[in-house]
């Protein structure tokens, strides 16, 4: 009797321990959505030829936040937005305000822009050279301030709603992305290149409440959000907006969020009409819903977020080279003219651009890499080589959308994606590629990812 008593007690204690842990989910998650459709129509971003405000709202646009907290209390907030791109000048004041209001560090905030070209133009200062009427320019600056307030609100709301949750992830495939770098006898043009590389992966992250109810779906796709072209004057989230709407229609109690990947050199195919945008959205949304029904891998903690800036070299040109480039193709001439104008004002040209890089490590299960800028597809493979191909989700358009970020291959070939920065004058140098990849490797190691030799 005495001999068997201790093992029985031990067994009871073990069962109680297991029960507590089975009932206690790995995560807490908080969600918030805020409508960011302007009250007053403003010109749309993305195609320079459009200087008039949009004519009607085809689809409301949103910012959505997902806050996560692991068992040890490490927190992070991911924000997705139906916008062209949040440049540093718009994004950083938002992050500073959130840091002041909460205990979050900069590394724990990730802002992604869906790159819809049917969303409002953003500017913190008036742009007298845009060709846009003064009243509309005033409305753009006013809208941008309202947007910043709303993003601070949506982040703090999500943080205030943390509840026990289970998080899992998997991926599927959608055939929307088309490489757009078409090779012609006169160089690379914006067209269609069916043999060019694209990333058709559809990564899906699923958040369930502790009773298994679906609460949020975060999904990605690496393709320009440009089914709609410069002839469109209807405000809209484009294919990503329609895909989110599709997923939410199928799962009315869940928050569907879209995060764009390395689609700097991919366009949707086909494209051009609102129906194309709806169809592309439905294609992506259906695949997300299919993946949700498959067995997904549970995500474990701890959550480790690291963030740093990397100094990316810009190409140096002398005055004669820049003057020659002003007669070159349009992707080259605009930036060359801006660089010459800067020189003519007696200012120095920048040698580097400081780009933010974010890495979030979820236990041993997943590394989320958030790159800034319009990143071309080559970086998906470059990062797989550098930090290993498994348990990896690489995104672009995060934290600072400053212009295109081409690979050395793309820079060597030329074409639209080589046009450089658009928040200030400058072209990236080929050496920038390996410097960025090395920085991601350094941050992934710091975040605790097991790296290949
Ligand atoms: Zn773009």
Task: List descriptors.
33% helix; binds zinc ion; 21 strands; disordered N terminus; 453 residues; globular; alpha/beta; four-stranded mixed beta sheet; 10 helices; 26% strand; single chain
What does this structure look like?
With 453 residues, this protein is α/β, with parallel strands linked by helices. It has 10 helices and 21 strands. It has helices at residues 2-23, 88-101, 134-159, 238-250, 274-292, 319-325, 330-344, 378-387, 408-413, 432-447; strands spanning 27-35, 56-57, 62-69, 75-81, 109-113, 163-173, 177-179, 181-184, 187-190, 201-209, 214-221, 234-235, 255-260, 266-268, 297-298, 303-313, 352-362, 366-371, 374-375, 392-395, 404-405. A hairpin with a 5-residue loop joins strand 3 and strand 4. Helix 6 runs antiparallel to helix 7 (330-344). The longest helix has 26 residues, at 134-159. 49% of the residues are buried. Zinc ion (ZN) is lined by residues 115, 224, 374.
Main β-sheet description: 9 strands, mixed
The Rg value, from CA coordinates, equals 23 Å
Helix count from the secondary structure assignment: 10
- Averaged pLDDT: 95
Give the overall shape: globular
Ions, cofactors and other ligands present here are:
zinc ion
Separation of the first and last Cα atoms: 57 Å
Beta-strand fraction estimate: 25-35%
* Helix coverage percent: 25-40%
Which ranges are low-confidence, i.e. pLDDT below 50, for 5 or more consecutive residues? 1-5, 15-21
How many distinct beta strands?
21
**Helix vs. strand class:** alpha/beta
What's the topology here?
Blueprint: H1 2-23, E1 27-35, E2 56-57, E3 62-69, E4 75-81, H2 88-101, E5 109-113, H3 134-159, E6 163-173, E7 177-179, E8 181-184, E9 187-190, E10 201-209, E11 214-221, E12 234-235, H4 238-250, E13 255-260, E14 266-268, H5 274-292, E15 297-298, E16 303-313, H6 319-325, H7 330-344, E17 352-362, E18 366-371, E19 374-375, H8 378-387, E20 392-395, E21 404-405, H9 408-413, H10 432-447
Parallel strand pairs: 2-12, 4-5, 11-13, 18-20, 19-21
Antiparallel strand pairs: 1-3, 1-6, 3-4, 6-10, 6-15, 7-14, 8-9, 10-11, 16-17, 17-18
């Amino acid at each position: 009797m005495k001999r068997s008593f201790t093992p029985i007690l031990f067994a009871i204690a073990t069962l109680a321990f297991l029960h507590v842990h089975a009932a206690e989910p790995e995560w807490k998650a908080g969600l918030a959505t805020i409508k960011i459709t302007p009250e007053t129509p403003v010109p749309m971003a993305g195609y320079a030829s459009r200087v008039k405000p949009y004519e009607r709202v085809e689809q409301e646009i949103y910012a959505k936040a997902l806050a996560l907290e692991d068992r040890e209390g490490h927190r992070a907030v991911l924000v997705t937005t139906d916008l062209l791109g949040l440049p540093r000048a718009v994004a950083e004041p938002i992050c500073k305000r959130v840091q002041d209001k909460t205990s979050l560090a900069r590394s724990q905030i990730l802002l992604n822009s869906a790159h819809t070209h049917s969303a409002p133009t953003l500017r913190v200062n008036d742009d007298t050279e845009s060709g846009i009427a003064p009243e509309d320019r005033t409305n753009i600056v006013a809208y941008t301030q309202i947007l910043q307030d709303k993003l601070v609100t949506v982040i703090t709301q999500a943080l205030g709603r943390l509840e026990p949750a289970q998080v899992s992830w998997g991926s599927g495939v959608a055939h929307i992305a088309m490489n757009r770098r078409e090779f012609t006898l006169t160089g690379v043009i914006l067209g269609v290149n069916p043999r060019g590389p694209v990333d058709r992966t559809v990564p899906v992250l699923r958040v369930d409440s502790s009773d298994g109810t679906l609460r949020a779906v975060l999904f990605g796709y690496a393709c320009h959000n440009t089914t709609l072209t410069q002839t469109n004057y209807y405000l809209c989230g484009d294919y990503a907006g329609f895909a989110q709407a599709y997923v939410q229609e199928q799962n009315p109690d869940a928050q569907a969020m879209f995060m764009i990947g390395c689609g700097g050199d991919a366009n949707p195919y086909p494209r051009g009409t609102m129906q194309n945008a709806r169809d592309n959205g439905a294609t992506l949304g259906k695949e997300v819903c299919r993946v949700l029904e498959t067995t997904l891998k549970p995500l474990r903690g701890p959550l480790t977020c690291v963030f740093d800036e990397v100094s990316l070299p810009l190409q140096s040109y002398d005055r004669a080279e820049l003057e020659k480039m002003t007669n070159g193709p349009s992707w080259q001439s605009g930036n060359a003219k801006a660089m010459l104008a800067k020189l003519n004002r007696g200012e120095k040209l920048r040698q580097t651009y400081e780009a933010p890089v974010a890495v979030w490590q979820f236990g041993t299960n997943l590394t989320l890499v958030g790159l800034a800028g319009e990143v071309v597809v080559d970086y998906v493979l470059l990062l797989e080589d550098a930090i290993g191909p498994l348990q990896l989700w690489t995104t672009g358009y995060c934290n600072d959308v400053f212009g295109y970020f081409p690979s050395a291959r793309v820079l060597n070939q030329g074409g639209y994606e080589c046009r450089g920065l658009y928040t200030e004058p400058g072209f990236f140098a080929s050496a920038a590629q390996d410097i960025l990849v090395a920085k991601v490797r350094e941050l992934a190691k710091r975040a605790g990812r097991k790296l290949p030799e």
